[in-house]
Amino acid sequence: MKHKFGIITFPGADFYDLKFALQDILEQNVIEIWYQDSQIPNNIESIFVPSYAPVLPISHITNSYVFQQLKHLAKNYFYLIALGNGLNLLWYLALMPGYLSQSANNNFIAKNQFVRVENRNTILTKNLDSETAYRLPIAHQGGFTADPSTITEMRKNKQIILRYCNSYGHPTVKSNPDNSAENIAGITNKNKNIFGIIPRIDLAVDDELGNTDGILFFNNLLNSL
Questions:
Q1: What is the number of other CB atoms lying within 10 angstroms of the CB of residue 140?
Q2: Among the ranges 109-113, 139-143, 170-174, which has the highest mean pLDDT value?
C-alpha cells in the first residue's frame, strides 16, 4: 500500500536523499511542500522536515505559513519527523524539547555511528531491538542540548528514543560523536507524534551505500499508518 508523504522544502534544505529514500527505494508517494506555499495539500499522512544548511535566518523559515500550520497539525496528533538539524526548526516552533547547539568549537561531523533504541513504543522504533546497535550516518554540526530539568522530564516521559552507543550497544563517552547531552540521538514529544531523529536515516537505505539500517525506521512508519 502506498502512502502519501510531504517534505517541506526551503532554501538550503537537504531533501533529495530523503525524497529518493521515500519515493525510489520505498516506492511511496511524495509531495514537495515549498515553505512559502499558501496551503498544505490534503491527504498527506506524515510530513518530514529535512536537514538543512543555514542560509536563511531560522525565524524567516519558521514564520512562513507552512511552518506555522505545522503547529496546528501537531495538536491533532499528525506525524511530523525532523531529520538532522531539522530538529532545530521544530524546537523553534516549541514542538520539540531540545535542539542541536552550535558553537565555534563544533565541527561538522559526517560518519556512520551506532545508536541504540531506548523506547520501542513509537511508530519509528516499535519493531526494533533494544539490544541491537544500529548503524546510521550522521551529518551535522553540534550536539543535542536541553536544560537538565527538561532532560529529566524527557526521561520520565520516555521521550528519549535513541542514544549513541558503541558496537556493543553501550552508550559511552567515546561513542558520543557530538557531545550530545546523555548521548541523545533521537527524541519525541510527550504525545509521541513529533520526532527529531539526529542521524540521517534517509542516507541508510541503499545496498550500494553499504548501509540499510535506516529502512527499518521507515518500514516501522509505513506499517503504522
A1: 23
A2: 170-174
Name residue 15's amino acid. Answer: F
User: How far is C-alpha 135 from the geometric centre of its chain's CA atoms?
Assistant: 15
What DSSP character marks residue 137? E
Tell me which DSSP letter residue 13 carries: B
Break the chain into its structural domains and give their ranges: 4-224
Q: Give the separation between CA 206 and CA 210, rounded to whole angstroms.
A: 7
What confidence tier does 103 reach under pLDDT thresholds 50, 70, 90?
low
- Report yes or no: 123 and 224 within 8 Å, Cβ to Cβ: yes
Which CATH architecture best describes the domain 4-224? 3-Layer(aba) Sandwich (3.40)
> Mean pLDDT over residues 80-104, rounded?
92
Interatomic CA distance for residues 216 and 1, integer angstroms: 17
Taking the C-alpha atoms of residue 71 and residue 81, their distance in angstroms, rounded to an integer, is 13
Number of other CB atoms surrounding residue 137 within 10 Å: 21
Q: How is the beta sheet containing 160-164 ordered, strand by strand? A: 29-34, 4-9, 46-49, 79-83, 194-197, 184-188, 160-164, 108-117, 134-141
Q: What is the pLDDT of residue 106?
A: 66
Dist. CA 155–CA 202, nearest whole Å: 26
Residue 225 grid coordinates: 499508518
Whether 91 shows a pLDDT value over 60: the answer reads yes
